[in-house]
Design brief:
The protein is an alpha/beta fold. The chain has helices spanning 22-31, 48-59, 95-98, 108-115, 134-142, 174-185, 200-211, 243-256, 271-280, 318-325, 345-350, 381-393, 404-409, 413-418; strands at 3-7, 12-17, 38-44, 63-68, 79-84, 92-93, 117-121, 146-150, 153-157, 166-168, 190-194, 215-217, 224-227, 235-238, 258-263, 283-287, 290-295, 304-306, 331-335, 355-359, 362-366, 375-377, 397-401, 423-427. The chain starts with a strand and ends with a strand. Bound molecules: uridine-diphosphate-N-acetylglucosamine.
Length: 429
């Protein structure tokens, strides 16, 4: 199993190209199931989760051709996927495939909308809380689906097709909003989703669906209206830049000091995180090329932050911020409001000497002057990258074990960081 070895202490200087967003690429690929015609997606990141979803879609009979520059090529712009779901040969998504990635459960929506049936295993994914699918099922039932759960599978049927409905989410859910949105595009009549998630990835998917002939308005706001159409057609769409990858590297620079251009990043996708970083002492400048992050010699200032749905501070940057605050000049408070149990990184950060005290959903971090390198273990996708950030400043050597979590969500991480002067390498056993 691969490991990542880091020797801390180098400042980051240079340019890091930001990849396409994993959390948009996955639902966009799934949206390819909605049409018989080919959906072409540009700027798809090369990630283990993308490859896994390719296998899942392949199992349904979807033909996927990939092209694009190889990792390491200059001016890297991800890969282009040609997704062709002309014939769906199987509406079952089996346990062996779905259990490895939670988002793959979302295939239930296009399968049900287009084929009027789906049998999808209950999902797996990161170990961050219970992450149920009750709200996804509620949304599909509102649209007229009959749903049964049997042997770990959700069996959904809509013999006459789905019908437009009012769907009011009792809590903001990205997965629920994606599923309701995709399913409603081919439903008869109008669907109104209220308390919808406003994440930029929802808007990106809605834009693509509209290019495919869907009639969606209001995406990116809490009220989305979808007028169902009978068919969707092919189109070409570019995946938006990854705001979580952007925020992660921004925090890495704030941690080490230096000056890095995050090329292709868009500030409006993560303004709340950039505001927090500014408060912490980073200097952030936006330009046509992307976002420049710098920190001069001054120390890291402590902050108080709660995670929240977009446009709030993203839960997917919580672990990285905690690593940064481990070195702040004072005490910080970070409250996690989206996922219970998303503090698995705390005990690993403690191995660097970080002083973190947990009280319910709030972590208090008492900053210390120097972290020390340690062997640590990646527990989930975002937690693992927080260990990398800590390793970049820790004195001596850090070995991050179980990096397959990193490969699910960060494209060429060690290459991007070493390109800016970090001492980081992958060790394959
Ligand atoms: C997505 C993102 C993930 C991010 C999260 C919150 C993808 C592939 N993943 O995850 O990176 O951390 O949004 O921004 O886009 N919930 C229920 N019932 C449901 C569905 C969700 O109670 O049926 C709860 C969850 O347990 C959680 C909260 O709602 O507490 C938010 O979950 P949700 O927004 O759906 O997250 P994901 O879509 O799984």
């Amino acid at each position: 199993m691969d490991r990542i070895r880091i020797v801390g202490g180098s400042k980051l200087n240079g340019t890091i190209p930001i990849s396409g967003a994993k959390n948009a690429a996955l639902p966009l690929m799934i949206a390819g199931l909605l049409s018989e015609e080919t959906l072409i997606l540009d700027n798809v990141p090369r990630l283990a989760d993308v490859a896994q979803l390719q296998r899942i879609l392949g199992n349904h009979g979807v033909d996927i051709m990939s092209a694009g520059k190889r990792p390491g090529a200059q001016e890297y712009q991800g890969q282009t996927l040609h997704i062709s779901a002309a014939d769906i040969i199987d509406t079952t998504a089996p346990y062996e495939l779905v259990s490895r990635m939670r988002a793959s459960f979302w295939v239930i929506a296009p399968l049900l909308a287009r084929m009027h049936e789906a049998k999808v295993s209950l999902p797996g994914g990161c170990a961050i809380g219970t992450r149920p699918v009750d709200l996804l099922i509620m949304a599909l039932e509102k649209l007229g689906a009959e749903i049964a759960i049997d042997g770990g599978y959700v069996i959904a049927k809509a013999p006459g097709g789905l019908k437009g409905a009012a769907i009011d989410f009792p809590k903001v859910t990205v997965s629920g909003t994606h599923v309701a949105l995709m399913a409603a595009t081919l439903a008869k009549g109008t669907t109104v989703i209220t308390n919808a998630a406003c994440e930029p990835e929802i808007l990106d998917v809605a834009d693509c669906l509209n290019k495919m002939g869907a009639r969606v308005t209001g995406a990116g706001t809490p009220r989305i209206v979808i007028e169902g159409v009978t068919k969707l057609h092919g189109t070409r769409h570019t995946v938006l830049p990854d705001r979580i990858e952007t925020g992660t590297y921004a925090m890495a620079v704030a941690m080490t000091g230096g000056d890095v251009l995050l090329a292709g990043a868009r500030p409006e996708l993560l303004q709340s995180a950039l505001d927090v970083l500014t408060q912490a002492g980073a200097v952030i400048t936006a330009s046509n090329e992307g976002i420049r992050v710098a920190r001069n010699g001054a120390g890291i200032q402590p902050v108080t932050v709660s995670t929240a749905p977009f446009p709030g501070f993203p839960t997917d940057l919580q672990a990285q911020l905690m690593a940064l605050m481990a070195c702040a000049k004072g005490s910080s408070h970070i409250t996690e409001t989206i996922f219970e149990n998303r503090f698995m990184h705390v005990q690993e950060l403690a191995r660097f000497g970080a002083r973190i005290h947990l009280n319910g959903e709030t972590a208090t971090i008492d900053g210390i002057a120097k972290l020390r390198g340690a062997p640590v273990m990646a527990t989930d996708l975002r937690a693992s990258v927080s260990l990398v950030i800590a390793g970049l400043v820790a004195e001596g050597e850090t070995m991050v074990n179980r990096v397959y979590h990193l490969d699910r969500g960060f494209e060429r991480l060690e290459e991007k960081l070493s390109g800016c002067g970090a001492s980081i390498e992958r060790i394959s056993d």
